[in-house]
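Final report, Chapter 2: Outcomes

The project's central promise was a pipeline that accepts a single protein chain and returns its three-dimensional structure in a standardized token representation, suitable for archiving and comparison. That pipeline is now operational. To close this chapter, we reproduce one record exactly as it appears in the project archive, with the input sequence first and the structure output second.
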Amino acid sequence: MANQYDVLGKAPGLEELNKLSPSDVHLTIRGLNAGYGKMEILHNFDLTVSKGQSLCLIGPNGAGKSTILHSIYGFTNIFDGKIELDGNEITKLTPAEKLSKVGVAYILQDNSVFPDMTVEENLLMGGYIKDKQDEAYEEAERIFQKYDRLRNRRNQPAKVLSGGERRLLEISRALVMKPSVLLVDEPSIGLEPKYISMVFEILDDLQKAEKKTIILVEQNAKKGLEFADIGYVLVSGQTAIAGKGNDLLKNPDVGRLFLGG
């Protein structure tokens, strides 16, 4: 039966995805079937992203966007396929191993700060699985030097922070482990417009200045595609269309279905 998304056409092949990330490939997903319990949500899913590149996943609710992040991080049942980082398979690693051994960090979409702990204590929680706690303190100091919004509140409870500052703290806490890949789930959710801009400026700096690879899910498709180098449009657990972020913004079908235009 036809649906409104059929206009998006034939799904992009692996060759097309690889052209969007042509050099210094960092993370790949090949033929992934994954879901929760016995329910399969992703079907033969492929992904390619380069070092220091940003990729935004957009699509309707239930399309499988967050399931991709969960699968990369180790929160789903993987029935088939593999995930590789720099050519090394990481499919079966636990979330703790993904963070501590291969540098993949996941930033949750819901408010995950500890409100009664200080900003500094929250930040140090990001390094709780580090073998050397001194390294966590060093990284926390580097983050305080970089973000005066956090430095000025370091000894205050996190509950005094604004929504945008809490999101900054969540992102910064993930940075304590010095990851190379950031999985960011709905960075703009629940934020006022001025804080949404701040959060995307921070992500842009992490990508460009620190060469982080960023894969994000963003309900505000326009904002996500304006930020990202490339975008994948997901429908029913598969990629319906892929392209450069700017090209997807100009695509009339994407605009009509996801951008309110």
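Archive annotation: The mean pLDDT is 91.
This record, like all others produced under the grant, will remain available to the consortium after the project formally closes.
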